[in-house]
Amino acid sequence: MVVVVGGVALEEPLPDSTTLIHSHPGFRETASHLLAIPSKIVGPVGLLYVQQREMAVTVPHDKNVSIIGTDDVTTCVTVVLRHSGSGAVCLSHLDGAGVEEAVMNMVSRVQELAMGYPEGRLQLQLIGGYSDPHNVTEELFYNILHSFHKQPVEVELINLTLGELNTTVRNGIHWPIIYGVGVEVKSGDVFPATFPDKGPECALRSARHLTGGHQGPQVLDVYDCGLGLLRIGPFNYHPIRGVDLWLEQPDEFILQHLSTSPEVEPPHFVMQMRATLKYIQEHPFPAVTVFRDNRPHYYRRDEISGTWTPFRY
Protein backbone atom coordinates (compact mmCIF):
# COMPACT_ATOMS: atom_id res chain seq x y z
CA MET A 1 0.00 0.00 0.00
CA VAL A 2 1.11 3.60 0.43
CA VAL A 3 1.53 6.64 2.62
CA VAL A 4 -1.46 8.96 2.23
CA VAL A 5 -1.59 12.73 2.81
CA GLY A 6 -4.96 14.47 2.82
CA GLY A 7 -6.63 11.45 1.27
CA VAL A 8 -4.17 11.32 -1.64
CA ALA A 9 -1.46 8.68 -1.99
CA LEU A 10 2.11 9.93 -2.27
CA GLU A 11 3.62 9.12 -5.63
CA GLU A 12 7.09 7.73 -6.18
CA PRO A 13 9.78 8.97 -6.13
CA LEU A 14 8.88 10.21 -2.69
CA PRO A 15 9.47 13.90 -1.97
CA ASP A 16 11.94 15.37 0.51
CA SER A 17 10.50 17.00 3.62
CA THR A 18 10.70 20.56 2.25
CA THR A 19 8.78 19.64 -0.92
CA LEU A 20 6.21 17.70 1.09
CA ILE A 21 5.67 20.61 3.48
CA HIS A 22 5.36 23.16 0.69
CA SER A 23 2.94 21.04 -1.33
CA HIS A 24 0.74 20.29 1.71
CA PRO A 25 0.30 23.54 3.72
CA GLY A 26 -1.75 21.68 6.34
CA PHE A 27 1.51 20.42 7.83
CA ARG A 28 2.48 24.00 8.72
CA GLU A 29 -0.79 24.45 10.57
CA THR A 30 -0.42 21.15 12.45
CA ALA A 31 3.18 21.96 13.38
CA SER A 32 2.26 25.48 14.52
CA HIS A 33 -0.42 24.03 16.78
CA LEU A 34 2.02 21.55 18.34
CA LEU A 35 4.78 24.16 18.75
CA ALA A 36 2.35 26.52 20.48
CA ILE A 37 1.61 24.01 23.26
CA PRO A 38 3.72 24.79 26.36
CA SER A 39 6.28 22.06 27.03
CA LYS A 40 5.45 19.88 30.04
CA ILE A 41 7.92 18.42 32.51
CA VAL A 42 6.67 14.87 32.97
CA GLY A 43 7.46 12.88 36.10
CA PRO A 44 7.94 9.12 36.37
CA VAL A 45 4.46 8.15 37.62
CA GLY A 46 2.51 6.56 34.77
CA LEU A 47 5.33 7.25 32.30
CA LEU A 48 6.76 4.79 29.78
CA TYR A 49 9.98 6.41 28.55
CA VAL A 50 11.43 5.25 25.23
CA GLN A 51 15.15 5.67 24.69
CA GLN A 52 17.06 5.99 21.40
CA ARG A 53 16.75 2.82 19.27
CA GLU A 54 13.74 1.68 21.27
CA MET A 55 10.02 1.42 20.60
CA ALA A 56 7.02 0.68 22.78
CA VAL A 57 3.34 0.09 22.13
CA THR A 58 0.31 0.22 24.39
CA VAL A 59 -3.47 0.68 24.49
CA PRO A 60 -5.84 3.15 26.21
CA HIS A 61 -7.00 0.63 28.83
CA ASP A 62 -3.42 -0.01 30.03
CA LYS A 63 -3.63 0.73 33.76
CA ASN A 64 0.18 0.97 34.04
CA VAL A 65 0.94 3.62 31.43
CA SER A 66 -0.78 6.97 30.93
CA ILE A 67 1.98 8.73 28.96
CA ILE A 68 4.50 7.33 26.51
CA GLY A 69 7.31 9.63 25.45
CA THR A 70 10.90 10.40 24.56
CA ASP A 71 13.24 13.41 24.46
CA ASP A 72 16.84 14.44 23.74
CA VAL A 73 15.92 14.30 20.04
CA THR A 74 18.21 16.46 17.92
CA THR A 75 18.96 14.79 14.56
CA CYS A 76 16.83 11.75 15.45
CA VAL A 77 13.10 11.47 14.69
CA THR A 78 10.26 10.48 17.00
CA VAL A 79 7.73 8.27 15.22
CA VAL A 80 4.18 7.99 16.58
CA LEU A 81 1.87 5.45 14.94
CA ARG A 82 -1.71 5.22 16.23
CA HIS A 83 -4.83 3.34 15.21
CA SER A 84 -7.66 5.86 15.36
CA GLY A 85 -10.31 3.26 16.16
CA SER A 86 -8.72 1.24 18.95
CA GLY A 87 -6.34 3.92 20.26
CA ALA A 88 -3.43 1.46 20.13
CA VAL A 89 -0.31 3.61 19.90
CA CYS A 90 3.38 2.97 19.27
CA LEU A 91 6.23 5.44 19.79
CA SER A 92 9.79 4.96 18.63
CA HIS A 93 12.99 7.03 18.80
CA LEU A 94 14.90 6.36 15.57
CA ASP A 95 18.46 7.40 14.73
CA GLY A 96 18.88 5.65 11.38
CA ALA A 97 19.75 2.14 12.57
CA GLY A 98 17.27 -0.62 11.78
CA VAL A 99 14.63 1.73 10.37
CA GLU A 100 12.93 -0.66 7.95
CA GLU A 101 12.65 -3.46 10.51
CA ALA A 102 11.42 -1.03 13.17
CA VAL A 103 8.70 0.35 10.90
CA MET A 104 7.56 -3.16 10.00
CA ASN A 105 7.38 -4.08 13.71
CA MET A 106 5.53 -0.86 14.60
CA VAL A 107 2.85 -1.54 12.00
CA SER A 108 2.57 -5.19 13.01
CA ARG A 109 2.25 -4.47 16.75
CA VAL A 110 -0.34 -1.71 16.35
CA GLN A 111 -2.39 -3.81 13.94
CA GLU A 112 -2.24 -6.73 16.36
CA LEU A 113 -3.61 -4.61 19.21
CA ALA A 114 -6.24 -3.01 16.95
CA MET A 115 -7.63 -6.38 15.88
CA GLY A 116 -11.40 -6.56 16.36
CA TYR A 117 -11.95 -2.85 15.76
CA PRO A 118 -13.63 -2.55 12.34
CA GLU A 119 -13.35 1.25 12.27
CA GLY A 120 -10.16 3.29 12.27
CA ARG A 121 -7.04 4.17 10.30
CA LEU A 122 -3.33 3.96 10.92
CA GLN A 123 -2.18 7.53 11.49
CA LEU A 124 1.48 8.54 11.44
CA GLN A 125 3.23 11.49 13.06
CA LEU A 126 6.94 12.33 12.54
CA ILE A 127 8.22 14.79 15.14
CA GLY A 128 11.66 16.09 16.08
CA GLY A 129 14.77 16.44 14.05
CA TYR A 130 15.72 19.81 12.55
CA SER A 131 17.49 21.40 9.58
CA ASP A 132 20.92 20.27 10.76
CA PRO A 133 24.09 21.21 8.83
CA HIS A 134 24.79 17.63 7.70
CA ASN A 135 21.21 16.78 6.64
CA VAL A 136 21.12 13.83 9.06
CA THR A 137 17.45 14.41 9.87
CA GLU A 138 16.49 14.76 6.21
CA GLU A 139 18.11 11.45 5.27
CA LEU A 140 16.44 9.75 8.24
CA PHE A 141 13.05 11.26 7.34
CA TYR A 142 13.30 9.85 3.83
CA ASN A 143 14.23 6.38 5.08
CA ILE A 144 11.32 6.36 7.52
CA LEU A 145 8.83 7.58 4.90
CA HIS A 146 10.10 5.08 2.34
CA SER A 147 9.83 2.23 4.89
CA PHE A 148 6.20 3.11 5.69
CA HIS A 149 5.44 3.46 1.98
CA LYS A 150 6.53 -0.18 1.49
CA GLN A 151 4.17 -1.59 4.14
CA PRO A 152 1.17 -3.69 3.03
CA VAL A 153 -1.29 -1.27 4.66
CA GLU A 154 -2.39 2.32 4.07
CA VAL A 155 -0.85 4.82 6.51
CA GLU A 156 -2.09 8.39 6.82
CA LEU A 157 0.63 10.98 7.54
CA ILE A 158 -1.05 13.64 9.72
CA ASN A 159 1.86 15.50 11.36
CA LEU A 160 5.30 16.44 10.09
CA THR A 161 6.90 18.64 12.74
CA LEU A 162 10.52 18.20 11.67
CA GLY A 163 13.13 19.78 9.41
CA GLU A 164 12.35 23.41 8.66
CA LEU A 165 9.12 23.30 10.73
CA ASN A 166 11.10 22.36 13.86
CA THR A 167 13.99 24.77 13.37
CA THR A 168 14.80 28.14 14.80
CA VAL A 169 17.96 30.23 14.27
CA ARG A 170 20.01 31.70 17.12
CA ASN A 171 23.22 33.59 16.39
CA GLY A 172 23.34 32.03 12.95
CA ILE A 173 23.02 28.46 14.27
CA HIS A 174 20.05 26.21 13.50
CA TRP A 175 18.42 24.77 16.64
CA PRO A 176 15.57 22.28 17.17
CA ILE A 177 12.47 23.83 18.73
CA ILE A 178 11.00 20.61 20.14
CA TYR A 179 13.44 18.14 21.69
CA GLY A 180 10.86 15.69 23.04
CA VAL A 181 7.20 14.71 22.98
CA GLY A 182 4.73 12.80 25.09
CA VAL A 183 1.56 11.02 24.01
CA GLU A 184 -1.50 10.86 26.25
CA VAL A 185 -2.36 7.20 25.76
CA LYS A 186 -6.11 7.50 26.40
CA SER A 187 -6.72 10.47 24.09
CA GLY A 188 -3.83 10.14 21.65
CA ASP A 189 -2.94 13.81 22.18
CA VAL A 190 0.71 14.69 21.49
CA PHE A 191 2.49 17.49 23.37
CA PRO A 192 6.05 18.86 23.73
CA ALA A 193 7.71 17.42 26.82
CA THR A 194 10.88 16.80 28.78
CA PHE A 195 11.45 13.79 31.01
CA PRO A 196 13.90 14.17 33.92
CA ASP A 197 13.37 10.48 34.77
CA LYS A 198 14.26 8.32 31.77
CA GLY A 199 13.31 4.99 33.27
CA PRO A 200 15.35 2.17 34.77
CA GLU A 201 18.92 1.24 33.74
CA CYS A 202 19.42 4.34 31.62
CA ALA A 203 23.19 3.87 31.22
CA LEU A 204 22.83 0.22 30.16
CA ARG A 205 20.23 1.09 27.56
CA SER A 206 22.33 3.98 26.25
CA ALA A 207 25.42 1.77 26.04
CA ARG A 208 23.77 -0.40 23.40
CA HIS A 209 23.32 2.38 20.86
CA LEU A 210 26.54 4.22 21.79
CA THR A 211 28.69 1.17 21.02
CA GLY A 212 26.72 0.09 17.97
CA GLY A 213 26.65 -3.48 19.23
CA HIS A 214 23.46 -5.50 19.37
CA GLN A 215 21.94 -8.93 19.16
CA GLY A 216 18.63 -9.25 17.36
CA PRO A 217 16.68 -6.15 16.33
CA GLN A 218 18.53 -2.83 16.29
CA VAL A 219 15.38 -1.10 17.58
CA LEU A 220 14.12 -2.95 20.65
CA ASP A 221 10.46 -3.30 21.61
CA VAL A 222 10.76 -2.71 25.37
CA TYR A 223 7.20 -3.12 26.67
CA ASP A 224 4.56 -5.85 26.94
CA CYS A 225 1.26 -4.07 27.57
CA GLY A 226 -0.56 -7.36 28.11
CA LEU A 227 1.63 -8.22 31.09
CA GLY A 228 2.45 -4.63 32.06
CA LEU A 229 6.17 -5.40 31.98
CA LEU A 230 9.06 -3.21 30.86
CA ARG A 231 11.73 -5.50 29.41
CA ILE A 232 15.42 -4.63 29.05
CA GLY A 233 17.66 -7.02 27.12
CA PRO A 234 19.19 -9.41 26.86
CA PHE A 235 21.73 -7.92 24.48
CA ASN A 236 25.46 -7.58 24.07
CA TYR A 237 27.55 -4.68 22.82
CA HIS A 238 31.08 -4.20 21.62
CA PRO A 239 33.55 -2.96 24.27
CA ILE A 240 34.95 0.49 23.53
CA ARG A 241 38.71 0.42 23.11
CA GLY A 242 40.36 3.03 25.27
CA VAL A 243 37.24 3.74 27.32
CA ASP A 244 39.53 4.83 30.20
CA LEU A 245 41.02 7.49 27.92
CA TRP A 246 37.55 8.65 26.87
CA LEU A 247 36.61 9.20 30.49
CA GLU A 248 39.75 11.32 31.03
CA GLN A 249 38.83 13.74 28.23
CA PRO A 250 37.33 17.20 28.89
CA ASP A 251 33.61 17.74 28.42
CA GLU A 252 34.06 19.62 25.15
CA PHE A 253 35.97 16.69 23.60
CA ILE A 254 33.19 14.25 24.51
CA LEU A 255 30.55 16.64 23.19
CA GLN A 256 32.32 17.14 19.87
CA HIS A 257 33.08 13.47 19.25
CA LEU A 258 30.01 11.65 20.57
CA SER A 259 27.23 13.84 19.19
CA THR A 260 25.85 14.28 15.69
CA SER A 261 24.85 17.83 16.67
CA PRO A 262 27.28 19.15 19.32
CA GLU A 263 26.17 22.79 18.99
CA VAL A 264 22.59 22.07 20.09
CA GLU A 265 22.74 19.22 22.61
CA PRO A 266 20.84 19.69 25.88
CA PRO A 267 22.98 20.63 28.92
CA HIS A 268 22.91 17.12 30.43
CA PHE A 269 24.31 15.39 27.32
CA VAL A 270 27.92 15.10 28.49
CA MET A 271 26.90 13.94 31.97
CA GLN A 272 24.82 11.15 30.43
CA MET A 273 27.63 10.18 28.07
CA ARG A 274 30.06 9.95 31.00
CA ALA A 275 27.62 7.74 32.92
CA THR A 276 27.27 5.50 29.87
CA LEU A 277 31.03 5.28 29.29
CA LYS A 278 31.52 4.45 32.98
CA TYR A 279 28.96 1.67 32.66
CA ILE A 280 30.75 0.25 29.60
CA GLN A 281 34.04 0.42 31.52
CA GLU A 282 32.51 -1.57 34.39
CA HIS A 283 30.57 -4.00 32.15
CA PRO A 284 32.51 -4.53 28.90
CA PHE A 285 30.64 -7.80 28.24
CA PRO A 286 27.03 -7.40 29.42
CA ALA A 287 26.01 -10.79 28.07
CA VAL A 288 28.22 -12.25 30.82
CA THR A 289 28.02 -9.79 33.73
CA VAL A 290 24.63 -8.11 33.30
CA PHE A 291 22.25 -10.59 31.66
CA ARG A 292 23.20 -13.72 33.57
CA ASP A 293 21.77 -16.92 32.07
CA ASN A 294 20.70 -14.73 29.13
CA ARG A 295 17.72 -13.46 31.14
CA PRO A 296 16.06 -10.10 30.45
CA HIS A 297 15.62 -7.55 33.22
CA TYR A 298 11.92 -7.02 33.90
CA TYR A 299 10.24 -4.09 35.63
CA ARG A 300 6.61 -3.57 36.56
CA ARG A 301 4.71 -0.58 37.86
CA ASP A 302 4.62 -0.40 41.66
CA GLU A 303 1.01 0.28 42.68
CA ILE A 304 2.01 2.48 45.62
CA SER A 305 4.84 4.62 44.24
CA GLY A 306 3.73 4.46 40.59
CA THR A 307 7.33 3.92 39.43
CA TRP A 308 9.02 0.96 37.71
CA THR A 309 10.43 -1.64 40.12
CA PRO A 310 12.42 -4.83 39.39
CA PHE A 311 10.30 -7.92 38.85
CA ARG A 312 11.35 -11.55 38.69
CA TYR A 313 9.40 -13.07 35.82
Would you give an account of this structure?
This is Protein N-terminal asparagine amidohydrolase. GO terms for molecular function: protein-N-terminal asparagine amidohydrolase activity. Pfam families: N_Asn_amidohyd (PF14736). One of its GO terms (biological process) is ubiquitin-dependent protein catabolic process. With 313 residues, the chain is of the alpha/beta class. It has one domain: 60s Ribosomal Protein L30, Chain: A (2-Layer Sandwich), CATH 3.30.1330. It is built from 9 helices and 19 strands. An 8-stranded mixed beta sheet has the order 2-1-10-9-7-8-5-15, with helices on both faces. Helix 4 links the parallel strand 9 and strand 10. The longest helix is centred in the middle third of the chain and has 16 residues.
What does the secondary structure layout of this molecule look like, with pairings?
Blueprint: E1 3-5, E2 8-9, H1 17-23, H2 26-36, E3 40-41, E4 47-49, E5 54-58, E6 67-70, E7 77-83, E8 89-94, H3 99-114, E9 122-127, H4 136-149, E10 155-161, E11 167-170, E12 173-176, E13 181-184, E14 190-194, H5 202-211, E15 220-221, E16 223-224, E17 229-232, H6 243-248, H7 251-258, H8 269-282, H9 286-289, E18 297-301, E19 308-311
Helix pairs in contact: 3-4, 5-8, 7-8
